Amino acid sequence: MPSRDDDHTGARIREQRRLARLTQRQLAERLPYSYSYLNQVECGARPATAAFVAACARALTIDVTVLTGQPYVTELQRDRLAELVRPIRESLDLYDLGPDPELTPGRRNNSSPGPTASAPRCGPPACAARPATFQGSSPS
Q1: What is the pTM of this model?
Q2: In whole angstroms, what is the distance from residue 121 CA to residue 115 CA?
Q3: For residues 58 and 64, what is the distance between their CA atoms, to the nearest angstrom?
Q4: How far apart are CA 40 and CA 13, in angstroms?
Q5: Cα–Cα dist 47/36, whole Å
Q6: Under a CB-based contact definition with an 8 Å cutoff, are residues 101 and 47 in contact?
Q7: The dihedral formed by the CA atoms of 17, 23, 25 and 28, expressed in degrees to the nearest 10
Q8: Using alpha carbons only, how large is the chain's radius of gyration in Å?
Q9: Up-side HSE of residue 4: CA atoms within 13 Å toward CB?
């Protein structure tokens, strides 16, 4: 006889069904299985077949591993992400931007002047207002 504890596939189906705000009857209508069979699986009286679990996952629009309780799914996803990020980190560690001329050792640049009322925040540079002079030409 199957175990009646709450750590079985039927209990996970029940949990996901409730999260989807469906009754057993509503979920059974979306499945090619009877309401009675769904009820028995959720209660742990009958084991869930692979086809039944797949149908429930499809009806609930979730991954089958959520219902089967496959261990370490999120850890595997994190490990895969770490594998993808590692070469990027290594490349960034090797890339040298050089010294920042605005910073001197031992001093932070917290006192840098911000925009003032007299200085425009955007627009053409001050030298754009002067006419261009070229070497060898004389002003007329």
Answers
A1: 0.49
A2: 7
A3: 8
A4: 11
A5: 13
A6: no
A7: -10
A8: 33
A9: 4
30 near 39, Cβ under 8 Å? Answer: no
73-91, pLDDT tens digit by residue? 566 666 777 788 788 888 8
Q: Count CA within 13 A, CB hemisphere, residue 39.
A: 8
Residue carrying the six token digits 């996901």: 16
**Residue 39 neighbours by CB distance under 10 Å:** 16
The alpha carbon dihedral of 25, 29, 31, 32 has a sign of positive
Distance CA(120)–CA(116), nearest Å, equals 8
Distance separating alpha carbons of residues 45 and 111, to the nearest angstrom: 72
Closest CA to 58 of 39, 88, 30: 30
Q: Express each pLDDT in 20-58 by its tens digit.
A: 999 999 999 999 999 999 999 999 999 999 999 999 999
Give the Cα separation of 47 and 24 in Å (integer). Answer: 17
Q: Using DSSP, state whether 24 is helix, strand or coil.
A: helix
* Burial class, 120, CB count within 10 angstroms (exposed 0-12 / middle 13-18 / buried 19+): exposed
48: phi then psi, degrees, rounded to nearest 5: -85, 130
Report the alpha-carbon distance of residue 27 to residue 21 in Å, rounded.
Answer: 10
